[in-house]
Amino acid sequence: MIRRTIGQAKEGSQRTVREIVTKYESESQQGYRRMIAIFGTDTRRNDTKEALAERLEEARERTRFLLGPVSEEDLAAQHDPIMSPLIWDYGHIGNYEELWLLQKSHGKVLSERELYDIYDASLHPREERPSLNLLDRKDADLYLDAVRKAVLETLEDADLHGDDPLLKDGFVYSMILQHEAQHNETMLQTLQLKKGEGY
Q1: What confidence score (pLDDT) does residue 9 get?
Q2: Distance (Å, rounded) from C-alpha 134 to C-alpha 171?
Q3: What is the pTM of this model?
Q4: 123 Cβ partners below 8 Å, 6+ apart?
Q5: Backbone angles phi, psi at 24, to 5 degrees
């Protein structure tokens, strides 16, 4: 087990990205797997565009690391009635990013309405999600990559110091980072509940 203790920061000090994000490598069978642990996300941070882009990349690496060893069958299965299929969580992460970082923040839309409806948690309770026409891993990878490419392009021109409450100080970008971290926790819970061969 790898442990990390973060000491208490001095009053009034600001933790940098490097202080709250640690990268470490863990032995895995014949090689090494990159593991990433995120210890905090503050929506009030005033990050630079470069730091926001880096944090978005780190979050996506963590998500894909978690799903990497999971079979296609296990991605699509509902392992417990109170949890979504892992592949729904994955697609939802990308769709939520499109909704907030493209549509609501910059008025850009990549997807058809149907895709928004599939990944809208308020429209489909968990018991319905396995029967939806979900993206498989390959198509979800392509979708998330397309969304992220557009997000990084719009980030270059985003005014993080203006009056828009979503963009100001990078608020909406940090919100999306928190959302992806939240679903990483959900995915880990699902993997713990998975029956049969362990994760």
Answers
A1: 30
A2: 30
A3: 0.78
A4: 117
A5: -145, 160
